[in-house]
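Is this the right way to post structure tokens for a design question? Let me know if I should format differently. Anyway, here goes:
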């Protein structure tokens, strides 16, 4: 299962990196979102994928359990990532309304004909 997760994480990171290198603002936002999702999956995978075991110790239970820390970190990161992405999308919308473009080179004032 970890090999499959490693492939998915690699796909998310490579897709996110590709989108970060694009000229359109919305693609850059989606690229950061993909990298964020890849890092969340990486943290969850590093916590070892175990099914059928409780995430916390129950009184009287002495068997193996799943570490709850990666799950708690992921839940916190998901909430923060959602709020940040929503803020960036609103900011990108305002930039598009103001300058009528989402091309990062035009927003920087760089002329592509040089």
């Amino acid at each position: 299962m970890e090999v499959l997760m490693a492939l998915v994480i690699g796909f998310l990171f490579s897709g996110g990196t590709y989108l970060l290198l694009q000229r359109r603002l919305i693609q850059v936002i989606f690229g950061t979102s993909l990298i964020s999702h890849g890092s969340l999956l990486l943290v969850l995978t590093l916590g070892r994928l175990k099914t059928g075991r409780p995430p916390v110790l129950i009184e009287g239970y002495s068997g193996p359990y799943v570490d709850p820390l990666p799950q708690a970190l992921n839940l916190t990161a998901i909430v923060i990532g959602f709020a940040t992405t929503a803020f960036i999308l609103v900011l990108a919308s305002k930039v598009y309304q103001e300058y009528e473009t989402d091309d990062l080179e035009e927003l920087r004032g760089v002329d592509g004909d040089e």
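Format looks fine. Someone answered above. Worth noting: The chain has a mean pLDDT of 87. Helices lie at 2-20, 25-46, 69-99, 104-108.
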